[in-house]
Amino acid sequence: MDRSNPHLQTFQERGFPHADYPTGWFQVGWSDAFARGQVVAETYFGQDLVLYRTDPDDANAAGRIVALDAYCPHMGAHLAYGGSVEGDCLRCPYHGWSWDDAGRNAEIPYGERGSVNASTRSWPVREVSGIVFLWHAADGSAPSWDPPRMPEADAADFYRPYPWATHREPMHMHPQFAAENFPDLAHMRYVHRWAEIPEISLWQEDGPVLQVDYDGLVTTPKGPVRVATANTAYGVGLNVNRVLHGLRSTTLGAFTPIDQTRSEGFITVWVAKRDKDSTEPDGLARGIAAANTRELFGPDADRRVWEHQRYREHPLAVGYEARYTRAFRTWTRQFYPEPALISTGSS
């Protein structure tokens, strides 16, 4: 195996100093993608998982999404392949053992439930604004903050984004590679072709939430246009960008570790309506969503850098770059419970 290929190297082999996956909320899908009774296999944080939507009940008319470790504690069958939803439980396809939404054994068809003390891990899941979030903490602790609520999701003057303004795709990069775009405004000039390097107008930290606002000139076919944006990071896996003037849009870029070499990238774009009575997105709205998706997943933008990047723990930052990079990395330390793994020698 050619370990010089960055696509085959672990995050640590590419210079990232933390061994544990970061703590926080991470996107694992969209609410509308989970039909009632659907069972889905996923892999995140190096763990095979099974996600399913429970049957509706008095408290949840649409049911709830549950995430469990994928393998039945009885004899190891993967619960997503043939498993069936019954109420809030998932029944194993191999021997019919049933597991509830908390991961507890709910039934052994040919024996007494209390005859074994068995359970599987249940992961905290929240559905907010049409996004499915999963909580990960290296120490197993419960959620200590809430995932973001997107006002645009409930606003009548914004189009609903799913499925036309959404996309997901695995990428060979750590979520922090993307998150570090927040303090790195010089890349807007050279990667995203802004006419100038934007200037930060607000840097505000509030626990796990960081807001960074900036504005600058964007190159367009009709000439430079000044754009003001408000940008909010929720941990290192959720990055929200809001264009404040003109035809408003809000983009959620989310990055969830699959294993120690890849993350799943998600994009969701809410675009304001030009016609408040419109129900179907017009050509301009679709163009904005497509352009934002290209900027994230296209071969000539951020992805090209992230998938081939070697992380510099001690970058050769200059001027404002040094100040904001240092501030950002200090802020992100709260999401990694252990000290830096080793000195990577990438200084």
From TrEMBL:
- Which domain of life, per UniProt? Bacteria
Protein name listed in UniProt: cholesterol 7-desaturase
Domain Rieske positions: 25-134
Q: What coarse category fits the chief subcellular location reported for this protein?
A: membrane
What do we know about how this protein assembles, alone or with others? Homotrimer. The two-component system 3-ketosteroid-9-alpha-monooxygenase is composed of an oxygenase component KshA and a reductase component KshB.
Top-level class of the enzyme under EC nomenclature? oxidoreductase
Its annotated pathway reads:
Hormone biosynthesis; Steroid hormone biosynthesis; dafachronic acid biosynthesis
Q: Which family does it belong to?
A: Belongs to the cholesterol 7-desaturase family.
One GO biological process from the UniProt record?
A: cholesterol metabolic process
Q: Which organism is it from?
A: Mycolicibacterium duvalii
Whether Metal-binding counts among this entry's keywords is: yes
List localization entries: Membrane
Keywords, sorted A to Z: 2Fe-2S, Iron, Iron-sulfur, Lipid degradation, Lipid metabolism, Membrane, Metal-binding, Oxidoreductase, Steroid metabolism, Transmembrane, Transmembrane helix
One protein family per Pfam = Rieske
Q: Which cofactors does this gene product need? A: Fe cation
What is the E.C. number? Answer: 1.14.19.21
- Catalytic activity reported: cholesterol + NADH + O2 + H(+) = 7-dehydrocholesterol + NAD(+) + 2 H2O; cholesterol + NADPH + O2 + H(+) = 7-dehydrocholesterol + NADP(+) + 2 H2O
Is Transport a UniProt keyword of this protein? Answer: no
Question: What does UniProt give as GO cellular component?
Answer: cytoplasm; membrane
What GO molecular function annotation could you give as one example from this UniProt entry? 2 iron, 2 sulfur cluster binding
